[in-house]
Write a structure and sequence with these properties.
about 15% strand, three-stranded antiparallel sheet, 8 strands, alpha+beta
């Protein structure tokens, strides 16, 4: 299970995020970036954050700790900004907290670059999850203590906003052209990229998918959480089946 915390104070908004996340202080003395259930895309974005973020962690990628953050509606009354007050009031209950990494900087691909294999694994995960938000315009990568950390996976798993036919989703191609790690990952060459594809595909087992799906709170999954988990598992499993046309074209 994800660790639970209680939000004590709303500290500041992060207005560069479309869903208006905010920095909060919790009862464990920790500081978190809160992703709110009352934001525009609702709990679907939170589901994607947990599923893809925790899948990334289990595949050996660095992701800040995710926690379940309980928000009391009373906190909204202390906020003078009407927009934020409305968001907090609409988000009373369970939200998502992402550990705040103090002193981290956004990855820009110039002064420091990750290992090519690490870059390729991130590209693979983004292609598998159809993450549309890892471009030069919005990298969603942080450098902290000279290590790369992947953040903000709420724009992944776009199938959950329309639920197309499973095979339509499984065959959906991934546009790699603007991915911020394209050049670095490509340094592995076709054989190296194919090896990463094989390792990552083999690692995403039914058991692993069940594990990460079990981390999603029932309240974010609608009236029948068990059936909804099975539906997610069906879509994510179909994505792994050959010939996997979503793979980056240079994966061999």
């Amino acid at each position: 299970m994800l660790r639970g915390v209680r939000i004590l104070r709303y500290l500041a908004p992060l207005r560069e995020g479309g869903s208006l996340p905010g920095i909060v202080e919790a009862d464990d003395d920790g500081t978190y970036v809160a992703k709110f259930s009352g934001a525009g895309q609702g709990t679907a974005a939170l589901v994607a954050e947990v599923l893809v973020g925790e899948l990334a962690r289990r595949l050996g990628l660095r992701v800040p700790e995710l926690v379940l953050a309980d928000l009391d509606a009373e906190i909204a009354k202390r906020e003078p900004d009407p927009e934020i007050q409305h968001l907090l009031a609409a988000s009373a209950g369970l939200n998502l907290g992402v550990d705040f990494l103090p002193g981290s900087i956004g990855y820009d691909g110039t002064s420091w670059r990750p290992d090519p294999q690490e870059a390729a694994r991130i590209v693979w995960l983004d292609a598998y999850a159809a993450n549309i938000d890892r471009t030069w315009r919005n990298p969603n990568l942080l450098v902290w203590h000279r290590e790369l950390w992947a953040i903000d996976h709420g724009a992944s798993l776009i199938f959950q906003h329309a639920w197309p036919a499973v095979q339509t989703w499984a065959a959906r191609r991934y546009d790699l052209s603007e991915h911020i790690l394209l050049g670095r990952a490509g340094e592995l060459g076709p054989d190296g990229i194919s090896a990463v594809d094989g390792l990552m595909t083999a690692a995403v087992t039914t058991r692993l998918l069940d594990e990460v799906l079990g981390l999603v709170p029932d309240v974010w999954l609608g009236q029948d959480p068990a059936s909804t988990r099975l539906l997610y598992a069906r879509y994510l499993t179909a994505r792994l089946e050959a010939p996997r046309p979503w793979r980056p074209e240079w994966s061999g």
